[in-house]
Amino acid sequence: MTAPASALDLFETHLLVSDLGRSLAFYRDVVGLLPALEEPPRGAAFLWIGQPGEAMLGLWSLGSAPLGVASHVAFKASLENIMAACKRLRSMNVTPLSFFATETDEPSVIAWMPAAAVYFRDPDGHLLEYLAMLDSPPEPDAGILPWSQWAARTELVAPATAAVRILPHTGPRSELRALFTMAEDSDAQLDSYLDAGEVLVAVAGERLVGHLQLVDAAEAGQSEIKNMAVDPAHRHRGIGRALIRAAVDRAQERKRSTLAVATAAADIDNLRFYQRAGFRMRTVERDAFTPATGYPPQASVGGIELRDRVWLDLDLG
Which domains does the chain have, with CATH numbers? Predict the structure, then answer.
């Protein structure tokens, strides 16, 4: 018997849609696919997945006929893009979903693979998925869990490597704007302080994977962490802690007695991170994140309305 040809990869898949123009715009603008061909007489359109020639999605119009079956399509993506997907989807008025089809602000981890994934639906109800395989051992017994829980499980076995260096940043701040925006939702606020103080950067190889902006605080004898972020693909490896330690060293060199930081009361992960690093809560600044201060209306973090700011500090004495 002749052996069957070995399939190397999936090249194309097809979906039935009720409004071809609407779906074409959705897959182009929201999903990020490149249109390849439109054939109005056949009620069809085709888009490239990735670069032209790599893989293809076909959309076929049923007109006003009801769709009988909702399909599921997963798109391979980078972990960096998956970590940013919830925020990006919300900016396009698309609701990010967990593996269990509940609204979410973080990826789900399918531990038996393991892979990180964010789900969402197209205008016809088809379930779409961005997925990235993780460079970790499979854990079948862990089931399906939120990214934050997976990260907490793996945090102790994924320390920062010696190859990550903490250095002062000497170039233009504009080079770091993408990192700054991970920790700042208001462009107006960011513009007001982007060039303030000094910035420490975490460098892995030749790539900037994190930063911390250190400024003089309003109170005498105090330094403030104004903005800090680590690239999503490099989180939970001890890089944030390394940046904090470098900031402490800088503040002590300047004879500062306290290191302060502020974060959203809604951001439970940030509150956990800073308290684990030794910071203690000091005060709550109500209604710090409003349209009047440059923040989008009805913004939320993990389902908690973004309104109040929590100030924490670390005693350097």
Answer: 12-156 (3.10.180.10), 164-315 (3.40.630.30)
